[in-house]
Amino acid sequence: MQPACSPPPSQAPPRAARELTLTCFERQPLLASDARCHELADILNDVLPRHGLTLAAFVFLPAQARMLVTHPVDSRPRLAWVGYVVKRVFEQRAREALQTRNVPLLRTLVQREGRGRYVFRFWQPGEVPVHALDGPDEQIAAVRSMHLAPVQAGYCAHARQWRWSSWHDYHGPPPAAGTLRPHVEPLPLSS
Q1: What is the pLDDT of residues 163-185, one digit of tens each?
Q2: Which domains, from first to last, does the chain contain?
Q3: Would you say the pTM of this structure is higher than 0.70?
Q4: Across the chain, where does the E strand assignment appear?
Q5: Which of 66, 90, 144, 156 has the CA that lies 20 to 30 A from 34?
C-alpha cells in the first residue's frame, strides 16, 4: 500500500504592507543608546504578533524608528492603535529606567501640560503616521529606503555597518551575536 500523496503546499495568503514611523520627542537622538534599541526590539517582538502584524523591515535611527509591517489583506488591523501601544509601553519603560538612574535627560523629557500636570514624552506627541504601500514595487522601495537611511544621514558609509536595521535580515548575517533585535520576516525582493 502506498502512502497517500500530500496536497501541494498552499501559497501564503496575500499580505498588505504599511509603513509606521515613530519620531523621538523634538527629534532628539534618544535612540542612540543600544539599551533603548534593545527595549524597542523587545516591545515590537511582543506587540506586533498580538495584533496579527509581521515586521518585514525596520531601521532605528537616533531620532526615529521606521518599520514596515505586513498583515493579511482581508484583515483591518488598527495600526494607529498599535503605534500608540508601542509608544506608551516604551515610554513607561524608558521613564522607569531614567528615574532609577536619576539621569538629567529625564528633566528635558517632562513637559508641563495645564495646571500642575506633567507628562513624560519620549516620542513626538500625536498620531503615528501610517502609509499604505500598494504593490510590491512600493514595498521594495520602502525597504531599500529604510536600509539606505543611515547612509544618507551620514551615520555610516554602507548599510551593512548599521546594526539597527533589517539590512542584515535581507543580505547577510546579523551584526553581532547576542544582540536583541526585532524578529523580521523579509519580503521576497527581486534584485
Answers
A1: 899 999 999 877 666 678 899 99
A2: 15-171 (3.30.70.1290)
A3: yes
A4: 15-23, 54-61, 64-72, 110-112, 118-120, 130-133
A5: 144
